[in-house]
Design a protein that fits this description.
The structure holds three protein chains of three kinds. Chain A is an alpha+beta fold. Helices cover 26% and strands 16% of the residues of chain A. Chain A folds into two domains: 34 residues; 195 residues, Alpha-Beta Plaits, CATH 3.30.70.20. Chain A has seven helices and nine strands; from the N terminus they run H-E-H-E-E-H-E-E-H-E-E-H-H-E-H-E. In chain A, the strands form four sheets. Chain A has a three-stranded mixed β-sheet. In chain A, strands 2-3 form a two-stranded antiparallel sheet. The termini of chain A are far apart. Chain C has one domain: Up-down Bundle (Formate dehydrogenase/DMSO reductase fold), CATH 1.20.1630.10. The chains are: A alpha+beta, B mainly alpha, C mainly alpha. Chains in contact: A-B, A-C. At the A-B interface, helix 1, helix 6 and strand 8 of A face helix 2 and helix 6 of B.
Chain lengths: 246, 174, 391
C-alpha cells in the first residue's frame, strides 16, 4: 500500500466526519439531540407536543431579556405607538392584594390544547399545528380580530401599520393578527425559542422548553416532580405553557 | 325591422372581436424579455420547473407549498418562497420586488397583477454570513458543495453559544 | 300610488339622494384611508379591538332583523295592519343588513380577502355561521318581498314569511352568540346574550320602522291612522320594557357572582364614560324616557320622539356593551394586581377617531340609499285601503 492511498482515505474520512459534524452541530443542537431533528419534507406530527415551563420564582422585575430577544428574532420593536405595537411576550408584574407580595413572569400565547382563538376564527386561519403550536396562517387571515376578543390571555396582537424589512423567516404584515409562535422557525430547526435561549444565556434559568409528550424530556420530568400550574386553569384549556411559583 | 345585411355585419364584428380575444388567451404568453424592462434574473441554468410551466403555474406551486409549510410544518422544499428569492434576487437591489427592474415585480407590473406576498414576506434573501442554516440544505443548485464549506465555518461560533445554552438549560438530554 | 311625486318633489328627491350619497362616499373614503395606512390611524388598539364602526354595524344588523318583525307579525300571526306594512319592513331589513355588513367588511384588516372569507369557512366559528346566515337572509327576504309584491305569488307569502321569521331568529341568535360564546371576557360569555339580542332587535327594529314609516308618510303628504299608530306604539313600549328587563337580569345575575363584582362596579359605578352612558344613555334615554312618552302619547309626535330616543339609547347600549366590555381588562390572575407593558390590569382607554365615525355613518347612509331608491322605484307604501278602523 502506498502512502497516497492511505492519506486520501484518511482525508476522505476526515472530511466526511467534519461534514457530518458540521451539519449536525452547526444549528446549535448537541449531538444527543440529533434524534429530535425533523428532516426536510417531513410534516410535524402529534407524537410531540411542544411546551414551556416557566419558573416565575426566578424571574426578576425589570429583567426583559425574553421580551427583547423575541422582538429581535421576530423582527418587531417599538414604533412609538405602544397601544398598537405588537407584543408577543410581555412581563407581567403581579402583586398580591392582601399581603403585598410581588413577583413577575413572562406571558405569551399559551398554546392551548383547546384554543378559543381557533374555535372562533371564521376562516380557519388561527389553527393548531399537529405538534401543538397555535399559529396564525397569515395567508388566509382577514384581520377580523375575533380571535383577539376570544383569547383569555390577551396573547394576540393586530398589526396596525405597514412593515418593511421583515425577518425572512418570520413573515408578518399589516392587517393580520399574530402571536407568539413558540419560534416555530427555530424549533423546526431544532433550536430553542429565542426567549428561552436568551433567558439561559443570561443565566436566569427561568424558562424551559421541550416535548411534553416525551416522559423522558427534562420538562416532563420537572412537571412530574414539582407542582406547576396553568394560568386560568378554570377555563380547562390545557395550555402548553406552565408556570411554577404562581 | 333590422335588415339581414346589418345583422350579418354586426355578427361579423362580434365574431372578429371574440376570436381576437380567444387568440390572445390561447397564444402562449412567451414572456419575451422585450416587454417593458423586465429582465429574467436568475442564478443557475434552470428553475425548479420548466420555464413555460412556471410562467403559468408558479402561483399554484406557491399556494400549495405555503399550505404544506404553514399547516403541516414541512420545511426545506425546493418550492419555498425563500428558495425562489435566493435565485431570482436582483443583485443590484437585493430584492425581487422593490422595483420594476426586479424579477417578480417586473412581470407583475407589466401584467397588472398586484403582488400580495411581500406585504408580509421579505423580498430580500436571508443574510448568509453567520446566519442560521437549516439542518438540511434543500437547494438543488450546483454550488451546493461550496455552500457547505462556507456554512461550516460560519456555524462554529453559534455551535458553541448554543451548546452553552443547552448546558444551562439542562434540557434535551435523551 | 307611485307617481304621486310632483316636479318639485323630484328635485327634492334628488337633493336628498345626493346628500345621502355624499355620506356614503365619505364612509368609503374613510375605509380606503384606514386600509391604506393601517388601523393605526383609528382609535382601535390591541386592547380595544372592535370600536365605533362595530357599534354602528351591530346596531344596523340587530335592527335589520328586528325590523322584519313587523312583516312577521303580519304573515305569521295574520294581523292585517301589519301585513300592509310588510313590504316596507322587508325592504328596511335588507337595506340595513347591507349597510351593517358593509361597515363590518370594510373595517377588516384585510378587506381584500373577502373571497377567502366566503370560501374558507371554519364551521366551528359562529362568525362563519353568521356569514351563512346573513347571505341566506338576503335571499329569503328578497323572496319574501317577491311573494308579497307580485300578485301571482301571494299564496306563498305565508310560507316564505314563516321561513323568514325563523331565519331571522336564528340570525339574531347568531349575532348574540358572537359574544355569548366568548369565554374569556367578563362582559360576555353568557347564554343570556342570545335572547337579549333578539329582544333588542325587536325594540330597535320597530323604532327604526316607525321613523322610516313616518318619513314616507310625510313625504307623500299622508297621515297615519291613529288606531294603527296606537297599536304600534304599544308594541314598541312592550319591547322597550323587555329590553330593560333583560338588562336588569344580566346585571343582577352578575352582581351575585363575586368574581364579576369588579366588572359590575366598573359599569355601574366608577367606569366614567361607560357608567354615564349606561345610566343616562341606555337606561334613561333609551328605556325610561321612551316608555313614559309612549304610554302618555296621544299623537304621533311623541311617538316619533320616543322612537328616536330608543335608537339613540340603542347606540349607547351597544357602545357600553361592546367597548365597555373590552375596556375592562382581562383578569389573568384573580386576586392579584397586574401590570405590564401590554396594558394588563388597567382600564383600556379608547377615543373614537373620525375615520371610524365616518365609516359607521357611511353604513347608515348606505342603508338609507337602498331604501330611498327602492321606495322610489317600487311601491313600498303601506296599503291601508282595506283596513277598516276597528274598535
Amino acid at each position: 500500500m502506498s502512502n497516497d492511498v492511505d492519506n486520501s482515505r484518511r482525508k476522505f474520512i476526515a472530511a466526511g466526519v467534519a461534514g457530518t459534524a458540521g451539519l449536525v452541530l452547526a444549528p446549535g443542537v448537541t449531538l444527543l439531540d440529533m434524534a429530535n431533528a425533523r428532516p426536510a419534507g417531513e410534516a410535524a406530527s402529534n407524537a410531540k407536543r411542544w411546551g414551556m415551563l416557566i419558573d416565575s420564582t426566578k424571574c426578576v422585575t425589570g429583567c426583559n431579556d425574553c421580551v427583547s430577544a423575541c422582538g429581535k428574532e421576530n423582527g418587531f420593536g417599538s414604533t412609538g405607538h405602544p397601544e398598537t405595537d405588537a407584543q408577543w411576550i410581555r412581563k407581567i408584574e403581579l402583586k398580591e392584594v392582601k399581603s403585598g407580595k410581588t413577583h413577575s413572569l413572562p406571558m405569551m400565547c399559551q398554546h392551548c390544547a383547546q384554543p378559543p382563538c381557533v374555535d372562533v376564527c371564521p376562516t380557519g386561519a388561527s389553527f393548531k399545528r399537529a405538534d401543538g403550536i397555535v399559529l396564525v396562517d397569515r395567508h388566509i387571515c382577514i384581520g377580523c380580530r375575533y380571535c383577539m376578543m376570544a383569547c383569555p390571555y390577551k396573547a394576540r396582537s393586530f398589526v396596525h401599520e405597514e412593515h418593511h424589512d421583515q425577518n425572512p423567516d418570520v413573515p408578518r404584515g399589516k392587517g393580520c393578527v399574530e402571536a407568539c409562535t413558540l419560534c416555530v422557525q427555530r424549533i423546526d430547526k431544532d433550536l430553542q425559542p429565542a426567549c428561552v435561549e436568551a433567558c439561559s444565556a443570561g443565566n436566569h434559568g427561568a424558562m424551559m422548553f421541550g416535548d411534553l409528550n416525551d416522559p423522558n424530556s427534562e420538562i416532563s420530568k420537572r412537571i412530574a416532580t414539582y407542582a406547576t400550574t396553568q394560568v386560568r386553569p378554570d377555563l380547562a384549556l390545557n395550555t402548553g405553557v406552565r408556570y411554577q411559583g404562581i | 325591422m333590422i335588415n339581414p345585411a346589418k345583422w350579418r355585419s354586426v355578427l361579423g364584428w362580434l365574431a372578429a372581436a371574440l376570436s381576437a380575444l380567444l387568440l390572445a388567451g390561447v397564444t402562449p404568453a412567451t414572456a419575451h424579455d422585450e416587454h417593458g424592462e423586465h429582465k429574467l434574473i436568475a442564478k443557475g441554468d434552470k428553475c425548479v420547473r420548466d420555464d413555460d410551466y412556471m410562467r403559468r403555474n408558479h402561483m399554484k406551486i406557491l399556494m400549495h407549498q405555503r399550505d404544506e409549510t404553514m399547516h403541516k410544518g414541512i420545511r426545506g422544499s425546493q418550492d419555498s418562497l425563500k428558495n425562489c428569492i435566493e435565485c431570482h434576487v436582483n443583485p443590484k437591489t437585493n430584492s425581487v420586488a422593490s422595483s420594476k427592474e426586479d424579477f417578480c415585480m417586473g412581470c407583475h407590473s407589466y401584467a397588472g397583477v398586484k403582488l400580495d406576498c411581500f406585504e408580509c414576506h421579505s423580498s430580500k434573501p436571508k443574510a448568509v454570513a453567520g446566519g442560521m442554516h437549516p439542518t438540511v440544505m434543500p437547494e438543488q443548485r450546483s454550488s451546493e458543495g461550496a455552500d457547505k464549506q462556507s456554512s461550516q465555518s460560519g456555524k462554529m461560533p453559534l455551535q458553541m453559544q448554543a451548546k452553552q445554552a443547552s448546558l444551562n438549560m439542562g434540557e434535551g438530554v435523551k | 300610488m307611485n307617481d304621486v311625486f310632483s316636479k318639485n318633489k323630484d328635485g327634492a328627491f334628488f337633493f336628498v339622494l345626493g346628500l345621502i350619497g355624499l355620506v356614503v362616499l365619505a364612509g368609503l373614503g374613510a375605509a380606503y384611508y384606514m386600509e391604506e395606512h393601517g388601523h393605526v390611524v383609528t382609535g382601535m388598539t390591541n386592547q380595544i379591538v372592535w370600536g365605533l364602526p362595530h357599534v354602528f354595524a351591530l346596531f344596523l344588523i340587530v335592527a335589520a332583523s328586528g325590523v322584519l318583525n313587523v312583516a312577521s307579525i303580519g304573515s305569521v300571526f295574520g294581523k292585517p295592519v301589519y301585513k300592509a306594512r310588510a313590504p316596507l319592513s322587508g325592504l328596511l331589513a335588507i337595506a340595513m343588513l347591507a349597510g351593517g355588513l358593509m361597515v363590518l367588511m370594510l373595517d377588516l384588516g384585510r378587506s381584500d380577502r373577502l373571497i377567502i372569507a366566503m370560501t374558507y369557512l371554519n364551521l366551528k366559528s359562529v362568525f362563519a355561521l353568521n356569514v351563512f346566515l346573513y347571505t341566506v337572509f338576503f335571499s329569503v327576504v328578497a323572496l319574501y318581498l317577491w311573494t308579497m309584491m307580485d300578485r301571482k305569488m301571494h299564496a306563498y307569502s305565508r310560507y316564505v314569511g314563516f321561513a323568514a321569521f325563523i331565519w331571522r331568529l336564528a340570525l339574531t341568535t347568531g349575532t348574540g352568540a358572537i359574544f355569548g360564546f366568548l369565554v374569556a371576557r367578563q362582559a360576555y360569555g353568557t347564554a343570556l346574550l342570545a335572547p337579549m339580542f333578539i329582544i333588542m332587535s325587536f325594540s330597535f327594529g320597530l323604532a327604526v320602522f316607525m321613523i322610516a314609516q313616518a318619513v314616507m308618510y310625510r313625504w307623500n303628504d299622508l297621515t297615519l291612522d291613529e288606531v294603527i299608530l296606537r297599536r304600534l306604539k304599544n308594541l314598541l313600549a312592550v319591547f322597550v320594557a323587555a329590553v330593560l328587563y333583560f338588562t336588569a337580569v344580566y346585571h343582577m345575575t352578575n352582581l351575585y357572582f363575586a368574581k364579576q363584582l369588579d366588572f359590575e362596579r366598573f359599569i355601574l359605578l366608577d367606569g366614567g364614560i361607560y357608567t354615564m352612558l349606561f345610566w343616562v344613555g341606555q337606561v334613561f334615554v333609551g328605556g325610561v324616557l321612551p316608555l313614559f312618552l309612549l304610554f302618555t302619547a296621544r299623537k304621533s309626535g311623541p311617538v316619533l320622539v320616543a322612537s328616536a330616543l330608543i335608537i339613540l339609547g340603542g347606540f349607547f347600549q351597544l357602545y357600553v356593551f361592546l367597548i365597555g366590555g373590552q375596556a375592562f381588562p382581562l383578569n389573568l390572575f384573580p386576586g392579584m394586581e397586574q401590570s405590564s407593558s401590554f396594558f394588563d390590569g388597567v382600564i383600556h382607554p379608547y377615543s373614537p377617531s373620525l375615520p371610524e365615525f365616518l365609516l359607521g355613518m357611511g353604513g347608515i347612509a348606505a342603508a338609507a340609499l337602498i331604501t330611498v331608491i327602492a321606495a322610489k322605484v317600487l311601491n313600498f307604501m303601506p296599503d291601508d285601503k282595506h283596513h277598516s278602523v276597528s274598535h
